[in-house]
Specification:
It contains eight helices and eleven strands. It has 230 residues and is α/β, with parallel strands linked by helices. It folds into two domains: 121 residues, Response regulator (Rossmann fold); 94 residues, Winged helix-like DNA-binding domain superfamily/Winged helix DNA-binding domain (Arc Repressor Mutant, subunit A). Bound molecules: calcium ion. This is Response regulator.
């Protein structure tokens, strides 16, 4: 059972989705606009959001960015536009997966199961290992999904934590952006910008800058590594 928010303005598509998801014993709420969706996710905890891109009030990518501003909940994009460039951009903007309309219920179930599996794996910390990792003054606890720097808790998003934990598992090792994209984002494709943006957020939370790195070292054109400061 998952708590699902369906964001869809087409009544016909919406009721079909609700019926199918309810039959599959998920708890479903639904709204017809992006602003209602933002209000819902701010108030209710969901396991997954199914987001139609053609909403009456906001452009889909705007809606996605605003959602990402307030929550890490997995988002599956539903789009009628079979536009690869657009889909890649949305995946980079934080969508977890996408479906092209019209899609079958089997297709939807498969995508939902994959997204939920991924988010549960990272939420449970069952993979990567559950041991507490220490790199200099950094302590990373994958089981409790908590990180501290010099004894002070860091307030990290799901992605920032996954990124930090992945690098902390291999301290001093340069990891290519492509590998981060595949292992942390579980995407076979995408651009380096996504990673650079998350790295810069993480860096800020670690209280350092690219010009004066302490833990996070970026090697231009090669990758990034985490190591204790000298
Ligand atoms: Ca629509």
């Amino acid at each position: 059972m998952a708590r699902v928010l369906v964001v869809e303005d087409d009544q016909f598509v919406r009721s079909a989705l609700i019926r199918h998801l309810t039959d599959a014993s998920h708890a479903v709420r639904s709204v017809g606009t992006a602003l209602e969706a933002l209000r819902e996710v701010a108030q209710v905890g969901f396991d997954v959001v199914i987001l139609d891109l053609g909403l009456p009030d906001l452009d889909g990518s705007e809606a996605l960015k605003m959602l990402r501003g307030i929550t890490d909940v997995p988002v599956i994009i539903a789009t009628a536009r079979d536009d690869e460039a657009e889909i890649v951009r949305l995946l980079n903007d934080g969508a977890d997966d996408y479906l092209t309309k019209p899609f079958s219920v089997e297709h939807l179930s498969a995508r939902m199961a994959a997204v939920l599996r991924r988010s549960r794996v990272s939420a449970n910390g069952s993979e990567p290992p559950s041991r507490v990792m220490r790199v200099g003054g950094l302590t990373i606890d994958p089981l409790r999904r908590q990180a501290e720097l010099d004894g002070v808790a860091l307030d990290l998003t799901r992605r920032e934590f996954d990124l930090l934990a992945f690098l902390a598992e291999r301290p001093g090792v340069v990891v290519a952006r492509k590998e981060l994209l595949a292992e942390v984002w579980q995407q076979a494709y995408g651009d380096d910008q996504t990673i650079d943006v998350h790295l810069s957020w993480l860096r800020r939370k670690l209280g350092e800058t690219a010009a004066k790195p302490r833990y996070l070292h970026t090697l231009r054109g090669v990758g990034v590594k985490l190591e204790p400061p000298l």
